[in-house]
Design goal:
Layout lengths: L1 E5 L7 H16 L4 E6 L6 H9 L3 E4 L10 H12 L3 E4 L2 H10 L8 E6 L13 H9 L3 E4 L2 H11 L7 E3 L6 H5 L16 E6 L8 H10 L4 E6 L5 H10 L6 E5 L4 H7 L2 E4 L8 H9 L2 E5 L2 H7 L5 E2 L4 H10 L3 H15 L4 H14 L1
Parallel strand pairs: 1-2, 1-4, 2-3, 4-5, 5-6, 6-7, 8-9, 8-11, 9-10, 11-12, 12-13
Helix pairs in contact: 1-2, 1-15, 4-5, 8-13, 11-14
């Protein structure tokens, strides 16, 4: 079987990390499967380097960086016809739109699959776009959602006549990679052994609400420090906000990193303050690392964490502060991380890969 994954880029982020893991693990578990990846962004990233280093995975780039450039139509067709793929699996909005167009031109033996990664999509605010979306998704042989909440949202929006091609496959991770990781050195970030480190791993972008986490830090004592890992368009806004409320000395903006497991091991608490999510990969990674995780009270996080005691209302820094302070009770902290670590085992990457592989063979 020959599979082509198409997405915008391989920068840091939940979708990009998931596709990277899927590509490497699929080829490892099923050696007869050949994996290739097509992206539009030509910048070198940690995920792209990982694909090249750990697997014999060829990476293609669109001819034109602007993703909706109509000339990219010929770039898509050239790569697809030359590759002779059995499965084309598409992620992200713009590639999904292209997938609907190229579906009229790909060979009949080639099956088109797409994954819905988010419960929220701002275009669903415009009812006029529903028919366009319905047309797009009808062009695919299979639509995968990463969570029950994501699929419920999609089906409610589309109201398709046939739902048998809609499937749920939760994301998964290499549990042992996070469980057995060695801790990073605190000194490299200026942290002491007595500091309580709150880590946040996500894109610094709309919907991640780092503001609430920084506000919470302001309400906590000086022994609490924040390690913010990730890059994105709102990074400077978050830095400026931290400076404005005088907590800059207690926040480290680490940027995009490829050593997430050691950073999680070094930390005490992971916080995800998202306004919406499709799944919550960073939450799962922190759970597998053996630290306590707190997240916003949204359905995808509840599906992963499985207990509302670890959730707080969106934008409520007071409740978040209370839950963090409660973790100073060592018995409560140890019981919490034991529960979360066991819960993480339900989301192994082996299960995710197996379910994708079986689905590819069924369609």
């Amino acid at each position: 079987m020959k599979v082509l994954y198409i997405l915008d880029s391989l920068k840091s982020g939940g979708v990009e990390t998931m596709v990277t893991q899927l590509s490497v693990s699929m080829q490892k578990l099923y050696p007869s499967t050949q994996i290739e990846v097509l992206i539009s962004d030509k910048s070198r990233t940690a995920n792209e380097l990982l694909l090249k280093k750990t697997g014999n995975i060829k990476i293609h780039h669109l001819l034109f960086k602007y993703r909706l450039n109509p000339l990219n139509f010929f770039s898509y067709l050239k790569i697809i016809y030359a590759g002779n793929y059995d499965i084309i699996h598409i992620h992200n909005l713009r590639p999904q739109l292209w997938g609907a167009v190229i579906s009229f031109f790909v060979p009949n033996r080639c099956k088109l699959v797409t994954t819905e990664h988010g419960e929220y999509n701002k275009k669903r605010s415009f009812r006029i776009l529903r028919k366009l979306d319905l047309f797009v998704y009808e062009r695919y042989h299979c639509i995968i959602s990463v969570s029950e909440a994501t699929q419920d949202s999609l089906l409610k929006w589309l109201r398709p006549k046939h739902i048998d091609k809609y499937h749920i496959i939760p994301n998964g991770i290499d549990i042992d990679k996070f469980k057995n990781a060695l801790s990073a050195e605190r000194a490299q970030f200026g942290f002491s052994e007595n500091d309580i480190i709150i880590i946040c791993v996500n894109r610094m972008a709309h919907g991640k609400d780092m503001i609430t986490i920084i506000e919470t830090l302001k309400k906590l004592s000086d022994k609490y420090k924040l390690l913010a890992v990730g890059d994105g368009p709102k990074l400077n806004e978050y830095k400026n906000f931290a400076a404005a409320i005088n907590v800059s000395s207690r926040v480290v903006f680490a940027g995009e990193r490829n050593d997430i497991p050691p950073l999680l091991k070094m930390s005490n608490v992971s916080v995800a303050s998202s306004l919406f999510e499709g799944f919550g990969l960073s939450v799962l990674e922190a759970m597998a690392s053996g630290i306590v995780v707190l997240g916003t009270d949204i359905k995808p996080f509840l599906e992963v964490i499985g207990n509302k005691d670890f959730l707080f209302p969106i934008g409520d820094s007071n409740v978040l502060m209370e839950k963090i302070l409660k973790l100073e009770n060592i018995t409560h902290y140890n019981q919490s991380k034991e529960y979360l670590s066991c819960r993480a085992n339900k989301f192994s990457y082996q299960r995710m890969i197996e379910r994708h592989y079986l689905l590819y063979n069924e369609i």
